[in-house]
Sequence to fold (475 residues):
Amino acid sequence: MKTYPLYLNGEWVITETTNTVVNPATAEPFARISLIDRSRVARALADAGGGFRSWRATTGKSRGEYLQRIAGELERRRDEVARLITLENGKPLPQSLAEVAMSVDHLRWFAEEARRGYGRVIPNQVEGKRHLAIKTAIGVVGAISPWNFPLVLGVRKVAPALAAGCTVVLKPARQTPLSAVEFAECIDASGLPKGVFQLVAGSASEIGEEFLENPVCRKITFTGSTSVGQILIRGAAQGVKALSLELGGQAPLLVFDDADLTKAVDGAMIAKYRNTGQSCIAANRIYVQRSVYQPFLEQFVAKTKALKVGDGLEDGVQIGPLIDKDALAKAAEHVENAIEQGARLLCGGKTLPGRKGFFFEPTVLADVPDAALCMQEETFAPVAPVSVFDTETEVIERANVSKFGLSAYAFTRDLGRAFRLMESLEAGMIGINDGVPTTSQAPFGGVKQSGWGRELGAEGMEAFLQTKHISLCID
Ligand code: NAP
Fold:
C-alpha cells in the first residue's frame, strides 16, 4: 500500500507514523498518509513565517502567475486527481471531475484577483494632511478543510490566501488527505518558493491548538462542523486570533405553486443529491405548496428511484457511498425518527443490501413534521424530507426557524415574491430557481451558526488582507 508524503518547506516528507485511507465504496484501506506531531507543525509555521517575508513583497501579478501555473498543472492532471477524489471520498467520477474543474476555476479567479488588492485615497479634513487606506497581507494562515469536497474546499482557502500575499499551512480531513497531496504536487510543480505553502496531517485537535496558540499563525480559515467551529472560537479568544468559519448548513428548499414544476423537481434533485447529499449547501428540508404537493412528490419520487447507486468509478453511477459507517447510522436514525413522528416513506430508507461499502438508498419521506430530526439537523445523506405548506408567510417562518443559515432555495416565477424571499430568507446564499448557486466570482458563506466571513468572490481575497490607515502630513 502506498504511503503518501506531506509537503514541508519545499520537501516531500514520508513519516513512520501513518493513517490508513479507506475507500468508502469497499470499506477497504487502499493507501496511507504520513503524520507529524505538534512540534513539527510548529516548525512548519516558523518556515511559513520565513516564507512570508519575501512572498508578501512579490507583486500581485507575479503571485497570479504562480496561481495560473498551479491551475494549469491541476488541469493537466485532472483525470488522476478526480480518480483519487472518488477513491477516498466515494463521489461519482463525473462529480470528482467537476470538483477539479471548479478548483481550476477558483485558482484562475484568484490569480486575476491577486492584482486587485486595492486600497483607497480618503479626502482630508485638515490642510496639509493626506489619508490612505492600504491593504496588506495578514500573514501566516492555518487552513483546515473537511472531507466532503476534499480538493475544492482546500483550494478555496489556499488560492485567495496566496493571492493576497499570505503563506499557508493546510491540514486536510483525516478521511481524505490524498487530494490535498495531489494539490501540493501541482503547487510544487509551479515552482512556488519554499515555505509559502505546506501540507500537514496529524491529530486534528493538536494541529488546531498549535494554529490557535502559536503567535506566528495570524489567521485560521476553517470549513467543517459547527461544533469544531465553536472549539476554534473558544480557543481564539486568548490570542484574539482572526477566524473565517464555513460551518454546517440546514438548507430549506421552497416550491411555490407558480413555479415551473419540472424545473423545481430538477433543482431539488441536484440540490439534494449532489455529492450523495453530503454537501453543506444540500437541500435538507423541502417545503411544497399544497396545490402542487402531490404532483411534485410523484415526479420527485420517480426521479429518485431512477438514480443509479454504486461505486463512483462505475459508469453511470449518480449516488456513491457515504463517507463512513457513522454517516450511515445518522441517515438511518433520521429516517426512523421521521417515520416514528408520522412521516410516510415513499422510497429508499435503508442501507444498500449486499454491499460492503457505506451505501444508503436515495430516500424520500413525505408529510414530515417540523419536529423530526431531519427537519432540524444536517442529515448529510441522500434523504429528502418533504412537507406541505399553505402560505408564503408561513413557509418563510418555517424556513427561518433553523439556527443555521448557509443556503436556501426557492422556486417561483413571481418576481415580487422572489424579491421578498431574497430579503427575508435567513441564509448567506439563496438560489432562486437555481439548485447550484456556487460560482468562483460570488461570495460563499453563511449567517447565524453557519459561520463567519465569506470565501470566493472579491470577499474571498479580502478575508486574507488587513486594512491600514496611513495619515500623511505634507507641507
Ligand atoms: P469536522 O469534523 O468539523 O472536520 C472538519 C475539519 O476539522 C477536518 O479537517 C478535521 O480533522 C478538523 N478538526 C476536527 N476536530 C478539530 C479540532 N478540535 N480542531 C481543529 N480542527 C479539527 O467536519 P466534517 O465532518 O469533516 O465535515 C462536514 C461538516 O462540514 C458539515 O457540517 C458541513 O456542513 C460542513 N461544511 C461546511 C461548508 C461551508 O462552506 N460552510 C462546506 C463543506 C462542509 P480530522 O478529519 O483529522 O478530524
Observations:
- The chain has 14 helices and 23 strands.
- The first helix runs from residue 38 to 55.
- The longest strand covers residues 129-137.
- The mean pLDDT is 98.
